[in-house]
Amino acid sequence: MVSKIKQPFPFEYTRFEKARIIGSRALQIAMGAPVLIKGTGKGPMEIALEEFERNLIPITVKRKSEGFVWLQKSDYF
Hints:
Elements: H1 15-30, H2 44-53, E1 60-64, E2 68-72
Antiparallel strand pairs: 1-2
Helix pairs in contact: 1-2
């Protein structure tokens, strides 16, 4: 039986997860998605990085270990 374990917030993203989240968000911004922070005259990558650092990007990360571990930031807000 596979159990789903939710790790309590805050949790640590791996460097690969961070790169994927920030890169995906930068692409969204470059394609015209609304920006979640105000007063930015920066490029998409800097905006995405700042949004990530402020925990403004709603994201669900799925990890596989002894079963799937679901890490959902939205469950803790």
